[in-house]
């Protein structure tokens, strides 16, 4: 399997690339700056020496090279432009949207687009030619890059195409994370809104730790 990570040279994209590459999945980092994508991919390969080396490409080339799954991990300010650029290359593929519409100048708040969430906005832009699934919104870049430690949270997955959603859940589980079906695309409104709450907690002096995540846990503390 080969996947693409658009915005893959940022901390979140790099952490995901390292985790998926360690799991034996082929990864192509996409960037607007081809030279940077190539440089970062080489640096990541030096860290873990994966069986299938991570490669770098332009955004469009990365999306084209992905067999089925393309992850979008750009800042929300570049979300729409990236989707418009990628649209011709996503026909028949699954876009995994990680983007959270944080308020400009205040990452402790969301500024949802008119569609209700970044995930829904992506589906509106791409139309029926690609299936959009929202996932990995609440996983911190710090946690992803701490390769010696398991990821400290679960992942909520939202999408209106059940087959696509199940494929995304299977991909996420390859990096040792529990992923849960959180319902249709509209559920992304709630999932994306969790991120600014976590950011506030991580910045609070009253919280005795950093890089918080969320867990889905049985109410009776029993796994039976």
From TrEMBL:
Gene3D superfamilies: NAD(P)-binding Rossmann-like Domain (3.40.50.720)
Domain of life: Bacteria
Any one annotated GO CC term: plasma membrane
Example of a GO MF term: oxidoreductase activity, acting on NAD(P)H
A biological-process GO annotation: copper ion import
Keywords: Oxidoreductase
Domain Pyrroline-5-carboxylate reductase catalytic N-terminal per the UniProt entry, residue ranges: 2-100
InterPro entries for this protein: NAD(P)-bd_dom_sf (IPR036291), NpdG (IPR010185), P5C_Rdtase_cat_N (IPR028939), STEAP_metalloreductase (IPR051267)
Protein name according to UniProt: NADPH-dependent F420 reductase
Organism: Ventosimonas gracilis
């Amino acid at each position: 399997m080969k996947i693409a990570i658009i915005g893959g040279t940022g901390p979140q994209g790099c952490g995901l690339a390292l985790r998926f590459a360690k799991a034996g999945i082929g990864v192509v980092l996409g960037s607007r700056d081809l030279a940077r994508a190539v440089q970062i991919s080489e640096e990541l390969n030096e860290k873990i020496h994966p069986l299938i080396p991570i490669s770098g490409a332009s955004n469009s080339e990365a999306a084209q090279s992905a067999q089925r799954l393309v992850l979008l991990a750009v800042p929300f300010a570049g979300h729409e432009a990236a989707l418009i650029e990628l649209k011709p290359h996503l026909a028949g593929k699954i876009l995994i949207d990680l983007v959270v519409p944080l308020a400009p100048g205040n990452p402790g708040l969301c500024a949802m687009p008119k569609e209700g969430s970044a995930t829904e906005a992506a589906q509106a832009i791409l139309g029926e030619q690609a299936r959009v699934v929202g996932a990995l919104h609440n996983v911190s870049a710090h946690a992803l890059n701490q390769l010696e430690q398991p990821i400290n949270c679960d992942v909520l997955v939202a999408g209106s195409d059940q087959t696509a959603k199940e494929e995304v859940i299977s991909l996420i589980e390859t990096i040792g994370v529990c992923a849960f079906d959180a319902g249709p695309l509209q559920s992304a409104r709630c999932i994306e809104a969790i991120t600014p709450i976590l950011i506030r907690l991580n910045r609070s002096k009253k919280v005795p730790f950093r890089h918080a995540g969320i867990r889905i846990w049985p109410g009776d503390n029993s796994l039976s």
